[in-house]
Amino acid sequence: MNETVEGILSHYSVREFTKEALTKSEIELLVKSAQAASTSSFVQAYSIIGVTDTKLRQELSAVAGNQDYVVQTGQFFVFVADLSRHHEIGKARGVETNSLSSMERLLVATVDATLAAQNMAIAAESMGFGICYIGGIRNDLAKVSELLHIPDYATPLFGLTIGHPKANSEPKPRLATDLVYHENHFQPKTMDDFKMYDDTIRDYYAARTGGKRVEGWTDQIERGLKRPTRKDLKDFLASKNLGTK
Question: Quick one: which of 11, 49, 34, 4 has its CA closest to 118?
Answer without folding.
Answer: 34
